[in-house]
Amino acid sequence: MSDILSKVIKVLYDSEPKARHEAVIVIKGILETTTDMQIKCFFPLLTSNLTCAMTSSDFEVQKDSLDLLSLMLETHPNLICHSFNVLYDLLDMVSCPSKRSKRKRALIININSKLTSQDWRMKVMTQVRGFLRAVLASMNKLSENVEDEQEVYWDGKTPLYLPIYAGGGLKPLDVEQLSRVESTLNYCWKPEAVKQFISDIIPVLIDIFNEEVSEFASCLTKGYVLSLKSAESVQIVLQIFAILGEWIKIADADTE
Q: What's the gap between Cα 80 and its chain centre?
């Protein structure tokens, strides 16, 4: 698998669109047929190349990188959600630091002639929503108290070697792995990092929302209703706001 991934992953930067799409299909087959444990050691390779594709100067490569990210979120959300840089790579796809204020980001206009700014932002924001959902799911999973009580019979005169099971006794619990994953998640999503990202993305979300609201107001004056595309854009932005609200609650709880 290592040889296949190391060769296929390089095709993600190929100038030929068909080659890039074929590479994504091959990677999709691998992701869909492997467990988190099987693919875990290869994820640094995948995420590092994903980041390179997301920050490429070639817009088409950037666009295809979102397909790979979507696959990773769909098949292995508990692994990809530890990659903090991915969120900022997504943010950089639709905004940049403002020249007027260092604390605020400005929306990027006219990304590509083949795709409107509105369509591109929604493609990116859809991935932001999926990524944040994966982070929250992992945090909630770690905080759950799973009860795995089972009756055990043994002879008191002989030693008993009893493995610890999780998930209703479906598989042995790897205590070392669990603690390692939890510490990694806590390191990546420290309250300070969470609040910093939220302070960076909120102005971007507000600007996107205001653009859609302005279009809605314009439609009303002309006697039209809000377009389906604009309605979906507003919905995605509001859903991200809701997820951020849940995220803030968790961050505040960790600081108490």
A: 7
User: Tell me, what's the pLDDT at 65?
Assistant: 94
CB 56 within 8 A of CB 65: yes
Q: What is the CA radius of gyration of the chain?
A: 22
Tokens linked to 207: 């600007």
**Burial status of residue 204 (CB atoms within 10 A of its CB: 0-12, 13-18, 19 or more):** buried
- Average confidence score pLDDT of the chain: 79
Alpha carbon 17 to chain centroid distance?
A: 24
Phi, psi angles (nearest 5°) of residue 109: -105, 145
Residue 138 identity? S
Query: Which amino acid belongs to residue 160?
Result: L
Q: What is the pLDDT of residues 236-248, one digit of tens each?
A: 999 999 999 888 8
CATH for 1-78, options being 1.20.950, 1.20.144, 1.25.10, 1.25.40: 1.25.10
